[in-house]
User: Fold these one by one.
Assistant:
Number 1:
Amino acid sequence: MAPYDVKRERKEFYAPKNTAWAVVDVPEQQFIAVDGRGNPNTAPAYVHAVEALYAVAYTLKFAGKRTAGGDFVVAPLEGLWWADRPEAFTGGAKDTWQWTMLISMPSWITQEMIEDAKQTALARKKTPTISRIRHLTLHEGPSAQVLHIGSYDDEAPVLHELHHSYLAANGLRPTGLHHEIYLSDPRRTAPEKLRTILRQPVEELDG
């Protein structure tokens, strides 16, 4: 049996093809997560957060092989993003950005397994950020979603369209945090070919 792969099992949410905004109903999921603040291009905290997440994710992958659920493919990196001032995103004030970086976990990975994996990974990697990783359950529900192809800096016009055109035209308003899923490895992919899922939980204006 092939290992569980969230990109295969939940194609609508991890392998969409629409490059124009569309609403999907995102089910409840569980993640390993770590919180931080600062410019993702320059802040050491961001680098440490990503390294810690992958260290624990791969430890859980190997631990999963010994469970009834079995092996799984480590899911793409994801991020929830916000700022105290919304204009920090359009103005490029990246040092004030706040984030929660995530990796999706299969349903059979328990909180106890996550804590055990943290201890194992911490003993191997000596990365203090590992101790800050937490279990997170997220149920976004109705969400506007689009596949963005291009550099991260080119997301601004797409998000401007969402907040200044698409939502109002469809009688919607944002409810949760801006969510991104990184389908490409920026170390190996040209900026113009990066594939990123952009997602914004929404609700009806009269809801």
Note: The chain has a mean pLDDT of 93.
Number 2:
Amino acid sequence: MSGRPGRKLGPITSSVGSAHRAWLEPVRERYLGSGLTLSELSVRIMFAKSKLSELLRGIGLYPRWEAVQGLARELGLPSWPLYRLWRQAAFEAHKSSAWVERCSENSTLSTAPTAPPLAHLAYRELVGDDYTGYAQVFLSDDQSDYAVSDTFDILWLCWNDALASPDLRRFAWEALRATVLAKTPHLDGRPQFGTAAFDTVILQSLPAADHMDQIAESMELFNAMSRLPDHQLDVMVLRRLRGHCEEQTSALLGVSRATVRSDERHAVRFLESILCPPETEQDDEQSPLYPPPETEGNTE
């Protein structure tokens, strides 16, 4: 932050895992926006400045909850979603359950469940099922539940920023996408989601006898879709795999219907160039890119 004395805080180290980064990034953003220096914060939470810098960069050993709790208190962050994310990241860092419990045994107040803001709770009720449907295209059912839960914990940590953003829906969707893709296996930088995505609108609409042929076609489609830019991939997942209409897709992504149509058109052209080259004759209704019916609700 300009005008802050002392050395500028360095970036998060590349070795930080996805679960650790999920809570560290909102904490860093709150610190950078607070106007406090590391020296001031160090005195307030009684934590060495050098160790505090390491904590905010994800360097060294995974931090104990006492230090993270002190940061949450001074920066005005809600403890409960932060603790949930911290705990999950501790297990990702191969910490034992005993270590986690020892870290928090003297912090019962900060680890007690609390209710989120009413607006946050209402928004989760509004989009939670659709977020889960999106996550299930990339992840197993259990993993998708964790991803959606993590997303709303992250949103809780930065809820004021979300409300102050140009579009809450877009802010929230970007948090969901980042969380889901961080948990999705990648190959050469491309998300590999074919296995999880088999349970789609396409497969559910076919007789059982046709599933094997459709699986082969779908694998080709999923591999090609993994090469799409993020915004086009999201539109194709919501429109073609989840069966949402333009209006639903627009509302979830926080973009105009014209943007949805444009992204879908460009994505289809790209996919057709790979899956349906000009010399290949194919009945449109048998193509995996054949548009879904435009309905007011989800086809499920």
Note: The longest strand covers residues 186-187.
Number 3:
Amino acid sequence: MNLMEWVQATLPELMCDLNQPATASEIASLENKLGVELPERLKAMYLEHNGQKDEINTGLFYGLNFLPLNRVYEEWCSWAEIIDSQGEEGMKELSMFSTSHVPGFIKEVYAHKRWVPFAHDWAGNYLGLDFEPAENGTVGQVINFGRDEDEKFVIAKSFSEFMQWYTAELESGNYSIVVEDDGGRSFNTKQPQSGHFLDAVKVLFRAV
């Protein structure tokens, strides 16, 4: 299934909220700043749409907003500043409750400079790419992380695998669209019922 065709047919207002394409040079600039190479599937998405305008109350990834390239860097910088300001001892304290759902796959820390967000919830929580996993993880795996995300889950071993899973979920009908009080429509999973995709993650991937 083509994700953008599904969006156009099902949530046309979300299609209208997507930005114009990024350029290859803009993607390369971000990669240089972060010291990583983004997955080809994600780069292809940015070459189609450079994230969202954020003019509606739902996002491309089960309600989480697709970050434009400049916002990816801004969000990354804000977390890098926290890591630098806290120092080693401060980060140890912040990481007291940080866990990897399956031990040995994600480093059990509050934040890491090699975690690169691509979607967010406006409250400091993200879907992102993990470029420095723990010993059993995979470079580039998709994880949850952020202010409220103490327990980290490997959602997919790669961004490509994540997109295969995501489009299959939509194709199977596992989505719920709700009209909110302001007339806007929110978008999340049907099963499990949840107001926030990162809460649904903890159910969907609990047995993995």
Note: The first helix runs from residue 3 to 10.
